[in-house]
Design a protein that fits this description.
The chain has no helices and 50 strands. The chain has 466 residues and is mainly beta.
């Protein structure tokens, strides 16, 4: 308060004097931090402290009063304001004291909706225990400094994952260390974004236990094995039984929590293979073979009837089941009817081992006769391959972080087989994407995420290519 005493030169009294004046200072209004970004349909709040600003009228308006706000007195001229953004329009906050704008106001707040933030990547779906995974946050507003990510383990332990700003957005890398459900909180300016938290299931196919049948099977005989996935986490089991690439039906019967008994009935006297996948990953021991026999029938089985590298001896077994009655003959032809020598060794009274060495890439036709009669499945066809025929082109000697990098693998002359590519750094694999460029040529793409040596490993049918 200020007192103003007004007098005339003739010492006449002035009506109303002395006058009482009240002063105020808008610079002494203290407003808490107001975020640049607010979340759609989530309360936004701030406080105003006018204790040291003098007496006066405090006015707060959002979008010229079109958006309602609630005020709560906290005592001693301090107030708590709350408003709810129900549209994605720009929100303008006005704070006035005695009709004058408080310094720094009006301020603008951007409203964030689910359409403004795109989150994608394998790290938000089912994840493999111990394997580094990732996802990308792409926001149309602000920078990565506004975003905070926290990962909560199934036991409640919180970690802050590593992040890297890339041209696709903010990349978040994390590694699950427990089986169960993870919670991933993504916040923008301290507020959970729409759809957050994200729930991610972690699994481990190594925890799936398979108990295969211990005896050979026979045509028409129900054959059973057991699967226990109770300790592997949540996931999808895929079970198939096949011979010579042909699937046969199988029945799966639950025997307990995530425990199953699988039964199939073979109709062919050949080795059957039982394949078990958990969330697309092979479980330990899969695929495992089941020898299927037929009374008084001669059968052949073994790796030598499948896919084999050249210049390395391979073999298969012939079972006669009749204690060496009859004569066994075997002949093998490679590409262009090229004859391959083979050695037949008697293992026991009704088992023989046939050994041969494929010497070139291509198909090998194997005729097995018993008493001059082709045995069941004969002639067989095996495939040979040569890892030394794998060629690479455009192989980078160096690159830069976050720069898309690629190279070419040409397996045209290597023979048929399964090609595996792994790219790692610091002992951890990073994602790579393979494009088929026609025939057996492939382009391998990856994004280096750290300035260090990256190692590229290529396998053909499980064998490393040097």
């Amino acid at each position: 308060l200020h007192r103003v005493d007004v007098r005339s030169s003739r010492k006449m009294e002035i009506y109303g004097s002395p006058f009482i004046l009240q002063s105020f200072d808008t610079n002494r209004i203290v407003v808490s931090e107001i975020p640049r970004f607010i979340i759609y349909n989530q309360p936004a709040e701030f406080t105003i402290d006018a204790l040291k600003a003098g007496e006066g009228q405090l006015e707060v308006a959002i979008n010229n009063g079109q958006v309602p706000n609630k005020v709560k007195s906290l005592g001693k001229c301090k107030f708590h304001f709350t408003f709810l953004p129900t549209s994605n329009n720009l929100h303008q906050l006005s704070v006035k004291f005695n009709g004058r704008d408080v310094p720094g106001f009006p301020k603008e707040c951007h409203v964030i909706t689910a359409d403004d933030i795109k989150i994608h990547g394998p790290g938000l779906s089912q994840v493999l225990l111990g394997a580094q995974t990732w996802f990308t946050i792409d926001t149309s507003h602000g920078s990565s400094s506004n975003i905070d990510v926290t990962v909560f383990s199934p036991t409640g332990e919180s970690t802050t994952p590593s992040t890297l700003l890339t041209i696709a957005g903010l990349r978040v890398d994390w590694t699950p260390t427990e089986i169960g459900t993870y919670r991933i909180h993504v916040k923008l300016d301290g507020k959970l974004i729409p759809a957050s938290p994200f729930y991610v299931k972690c699994y481990d196919p190594k925890k799936v236990l398979v108990t295969p049948t211990t005896n050979d099977s026979a045509i028409g005989k129900p054959t059973k094995f057991r699967i226990d996935a109770s300790m592997a986490g949540e996931g999808n089991l895929e079970i198939s039984v096949n011979y010579s690439g042909q699937n046969i039906p199988n029945d799966v019967n639950p025997t307990g929590k995530s425990c199953y008994e699988v039964q199939f009935i073979p109709h062919k006297a050949m080795t059957h293979y039982c394949n078990i996948l958990f969330n697309g990953e092979l479980v330990p021991g899969s695929p495992f073979p089941v020898n299927v026999m037929e009374n008084q029938r001669v059968t052949a089985m073994g790796k030598g009837l499948g896919s084999n590298p050249i210049n390395i001896p391979t073999s298969f077994t012939v079972v006669t089941q009749n204690d060496d009655v009859g004569k066994l003959k075997c002949s093998i032809k490679g590409p262009n009817d090229h004859l391959i020598s083979c050695i037949t060794t008697k293992i026991d009274p009704n088992r023989y081992e046939v050994t041969y060495t494929p010497d070139r890439v291509g198909e090998f036709h194997i005729d097995v006769l018993h008493d001059d009669i082709p045995i069941d499945g004969s002639p067989f066809t095996s495939q040979s391959y040569d890892i030394n025929k794998i060629k690479t082109f455009d192989f980078p000697s160096s690159t830069t972080v976050s720069t898309p990098t690629s190279f070419i693998i040409d397996a045209t002359d290597s023979g048929a087989g399964n090609l595996e590519i792994a790219i790692s750094r610091d002992g951890k694999n990073i994602p790579n994407y393979v494009q088929n460029e026609g025939g057996a040529r492939f382009r391998v793409n990856f994004l280096p995420d750290k300035p260090c040596a990256h190692y590229i490993r290529i396998k053909l049918n499980g064998i490393h290519i040097h």
